[in-house]
Design a protein that fits this description.
Number of strands: 10
CATH topology of the largest domain: Rossmann fold
Strand order of the largest sheet: 2-1-3-4
Helix content: 40-55%
Structural class: alpha/beta
Number of domains: 2
Order of helices and strands: HEHEHEHEEEHHEHEHEHEH
Bound molecules: zinc ion
Length: about 300
């Protein structure tokens, strides 16, 4: 009887020890297995949206956008302490390229080991403005797809753990982008060759892709910066050329666009250059679908 009790007692003790062992092991597990997530930083909103689609569902990664939501484009952008902090532990930074990230030298000198992914590599359809290439390439679906491919390829090399997933996500994303491109081609015969004035340089690639005959005015994304003199000249030119459309971004103030419209009878067409919006993976597709709707109705 005593012996039996002892056996039970020992059995319980052993069980407890095993349970404790498991508990302790589990408790220690996160620490032992703790490794840094692969940190991907994107320079600004359009690049974030691309990368979010490619990396959806990836394991052990962290995706962070460097700039605040409201910065818009990165022209003349000065890095903040907070931006630098976000890059500090990053494995890669994904950028638009074509000198849009004018602060790049600062990042490279501060973090020489950081992998920089330039999404513009291989983009062939570029538009020149004076001596410089217009860097707002993503408003063309073709260019955007090229950027997605580059980011996918470079990320797969940098973060092999998720390479297969990146390829798969990218394939699906590109399929949807291609479908939208087909819709653009099928439904926008109405705008082909039409003359327009474009008051936001980010829309230059979109205008070009849909076949608009657009003259692009550099405004640093803000048409209200146009001087009275410039406006006077634009009105004259628009009348001479019989321009029927004024392209602006939906976020623009419309002050000067309205003046041009009043003087010439041209229609204001407010499009989405994809510079601001929701931080969701379908944001670009949705913006471009909306642009298609607007252009179709002209
Ligand atoms: Zn810009």
């Amino acid at each position: 009887m005593q012996k039996k009790s002892l056996t039970i007692f020992l059995a319980i003790l052993v069980s407890l020890a095993i349970i404790m062992g498991i508990v302790m092991a589990n408790k220690n597990k996160p620490e032992r297995e703790q490794h840094q997530n692969f940190k991907i930083v994107t320079s600004f909103y359009p690049i974030y949206v691309m990368t979010a689609s490619i990396t959806e569902g990836a394991h052990n990664i962290e995706l962070v956008n460097m700039t605040e939501t409201n910065v818009g484009c990165l022209h003349d952008y000065t890095l903040t302490t907070n931006d630098m902090k976000k890059i500090e532990k990053a494995n890669v930074i994904v950028e638009n390229g074509l000198k849009l990230e004018s602060f790049n030298d600062k990042i490279i000198s501060a973090y020489p080991k950081l992998t920089v992914i330039d999404s513009s590599i291989g983009v062939q359809n570029t538009i020149n403005e004076d001596d410089e290439v217009n860097p707002h390439i993503w408003t063309s679906l073709d260019n955007y797809m090229s950027q997605v491919k580059v980011i996918t390829e470079k990320l797969s090399l940098a973060n092999e753990e998720n390479a297969e997933l990146y390829q798969q996500n990218s394939k699906e994303y590109l399929k949807r982008l291609k479908e939208l491109k087909t819709q653009y081609e099928a439904n926008l015969q109405n705008v082909k060759g039409k003359k327009a004035i474009c008051l936001n340089e980010a829309l230059a690639y979109l205008a070009d892709e849909v076949g608009l005959n657009a003259i692009v005015i550099e405004t640093d994304h803000e048409e209200s910066t146009l001087s009275a003199e410039t406006l006077k000249n634009l009105i004259q030119m628009m009348k001479q050329e019989d321009m029927q459309m004024i392209l602006v971004d939906k976020e623009d103030s419309l002050k000067n666009a309205q003046t041009l419209a009043n003087e010439t009878g041209a229609k204001i067409v407010a499009l989405d250059s994809g510079l601001t919006g929701n931080f969701t993976k379908d944001a670009y597709l949705n913006a471009m679908k909306e642009n298609l709707n607007i252009l179709q109705q002209l």
